[in-house]
Amino acid sequence: MSQPILQLDSLRMVYADDTGLVSRLLGRADPPVIAADDVTLALRPGETLAVVGESGSGKTTAGRIATLQERPTAGRVLYEGRDVTGLTGAALKAYRAKVQMIFQNPYDALNPRLTVGQSLAEPLTLHGLVPRAGLRAAVLEMLEAVELRPAETFADAFPSELSGGQLQRIAIARALIIKPRVVIADEPVSMLDVSIRSGVMNLMRGIQRDTGVTYLYITHDLAVARYMADRIAVMYLGAVLEEGPAETLISAAGHPYTRLLIRAAPEHRATAVKRDRIRLPGDAASQTGQPTGCRFHPRCPLAQPVCRETAPPRVALGEKHAASCHFATEVRQNGLAAATAAAV
């Protein structure tokens, strides 16, 4: 088995309250936000790992740390086995040429004052990858690769002249034009019409087949994760609750939260109708006031006293499949009907 190309090792990310001194002295300061809590993930070359969860689960924070846009409070980022967490200067620039990010909002990702061609040429110039005389040809080749034709017309267009789907293809092109080995894709189709989102996902899969690029695919939609990913990691309140091969996790989930996500996304096709973000029973706990024991127990239909008192172990459920739940084996076997077995 190939060694991981990118690893997030025991990441913890705490955002301290920045209110004024008087507020803190009067006890009005908010407690710190724990956005990531012992997050460990590994990506192998050429695969797609999808990270799924509700808003506030910490999945975007994990992506931003992976690209070193943010530095973790604790833990490490490893690239090809080497700790890159503290990179600065030229070494950081070199790392970012290898690990790129596609952002959720294509309208914000591109400079409205630059043509598409100028935006795509910019990273090539920044990293000194193509001489000035070859920039136009490299840009046109990339536009062809993301199926924007005629490439010359798109190269000379401004972002305001293009549709959301076209802009997202350009954002993908901008990330890929410097030939990175890893791409962090943060909800890349969530803002697109259902009529064009499958085309963008198929484009990303085709590029992966052709280039061998590795994806960390962040999404709130389990159906999209199943379509795009080899493996899925499910996050909740900053922690990974379950991880496994995509089809195994969907068909035999071992965590109640994963089971509820599956219920909330009954269609598992890229062409499925557009759904709202995940909405489960109860209110998601605050990142500033995490419960004792299992962090999911306030919303869990199977919660027992042990869940409120003791953090669950990570239970191996099969090859490369594990869940952090006291009753993971029962849930895997019986689904949410495991409530009876759990109560025994």
Automatic annotation (TrEMBL):
ATP-binding among keywords: yes
Main location: membrane
Stored SUPFAM superfamilies: P-loop containing nucleoside triphosphate hydrolases
GO cellular component assignments: plasma membrane
Example GO BP: peptide transport
GO MF assignments: ATP binding; ATP hydrolysis activity
Subcellular location, record wording: Cell inner membrane
Pfam families for this protein: ABC_tran, oligo_HPY
Keyword Lyase: no
Membrane topology (UniProt): Peripheral membrane protein
Domain of life the protein comes from: Bacteria
Transmembrane feature ranges: none
Limits of the ABC transporter domain: 6-262
Alphabetically ordered keywords of this record: ATP-binding, Nucleotide-binding, Transport
Name of the protein described by the UniProt record: Peptide/nickel transport system ATP-binding protein
Gene3D superfamilies: P-loop containing nucleotide triphosphate hydrolases (3.40.50.300)
Species of the source: Limimaricola pyoseonensis
Lineage of origin: Bacteria, Pseudomonadati, Pseudomonadota, Alphaproteobacteria, Rhodobacterales
